[in-house]
Amino acid sequence: MPHRTAFVTGAARGIGAETAARLAADGLAVAVVDIDADAAVRTAERIGAAGGTVIGIGCDVTDEDSVAAAVAHTIADLGSLDVLVNNAGVLRDNLLFKMSVQDWDTVMAVHLRGAFLCSRAVRQHMITYGRGAIVNTSSVSALGNRGQANYAAAKAGIQGLTRTLAMELGPFGIRVNAVAPGFIATEMTAATAARIGVSTEELQVKTADITPLRRVGTPTDIANVVAFLASDDAGFVTGQTLYVDGGRRL
Fold it and tell me: Does an H or E element contain 137, and which?
């Protein structure tokens, strides 16, 4: 049985899938958790084919019972739960006067309620083990971004949640940090391009031109940082939000 187990939400694709693969490559057993159960299983199968110990689990992170069942499934199948990556997220972008209450509530539920429910669900298990690491996905949009009032507020909330949980859980040996990606080439940023009426390639080029490192990020860029924060190498790091944005904040 691998020494540690990671539970990664929103892991069927994009940053979550890359993070799950990286953690598996680092020797952790991984639960690939996603609301799309079939996609979670397919991603888990790909990681397993590369030699990882992995399971795919369908889970709605906004539903308390669904989260509890997924956590129990992970511990029963993989033996422990040592790392939680709260990565599940959705976009419902719009300007304030066009944004519906449902658009607001959906984004808040997936990002903030989901991170809260998952963190609360794994808390006692990590305390029992005497250690743990939680890594939350924030965003540069936490600093504000036109057309993303819901997303920006949720991602800023993630940073406050991160700092608070670090204070509460630190005495039990549990570290809590956040990663705040900049522009990352994923299906989500492709959706942003469509929303503003440009091609994915055009948006990436324009973004790279105003980024100090002169490129956009990749899911691997984020997975590498998550892997560090989840590892013993970050054993004295907690309560931090690390911006991974190529030097560009907005």
Answer: strand 132-137
Cα→Cα distances 245→148, 184, 187, 188, 213, Å? 18, 8, 17, 16, 9
97-138 pLDDT tens trace: 999 999 999 999 999 999 999 999 999 999 999 999 999 999
Architecture of domain 5-182+218-243: 3-Layer(aba) Sandwich (3.40)
Q: Which helix or strand (DSSP H or E) is residue 169 part of?
A: helix 149-169
pTM over cut 0.90: yes
- Number of DSSP helices (H) and strands (E) in the chain, helices first: 9, 7
d(CA 218, CA 198): 20
Residue whose tokens read 């499934």: 73
Catalytic residue, candidates 7, 104, 151, 183: 151
d(CA 243, CA 86): 16
- Where exactly are the structural domains of the chain? 5-182+218-243, 183-216
Q: Which two tokens stand for residue 24?
A: 């598996």
Q: Detail the DSSP E strand segments found in the chain.
A: 5-9, 29-34, 54-58, 83-86, 132-137, 174-181, 241-244
CA distance 6 to 210: 35
Catalytic status, residue 129:
no
Low-confidence ranges of the chain (pLDDT < 70): 1-2, 193, 249-250
How far apart are alpha carbons 184 and 187 in whole angstroms? 9
For residues 217 and 184, is the Cβ–Cβ distance under 8 A? yes
CB atoms < 10 A from the CB of 71, how many? 24
